[in-house]
Amino acid sequence: MTDKSRIIVIVVVAMAIILAATAFAYNRYKKNLENTAKQASGGPHTVENTQTQTDGETTIYSFENVLDSAKLLGKSVSESKIEEKYFKNGLLFELKFDGKLFEKAAANCSVVYHQNDDNGEYFADTVYIYSYELGFDDAAEKLTEAYGEPTAEGEEPFARANGGAVTWADFENENYKIKLSSASEKDYIELTIKLK
Question: Can you list the positions of beta strands (E) in 55-163?
Answer without folding.
Answer: 59-65, 87-89, 93-101, 104-115, 122-131, 152-159
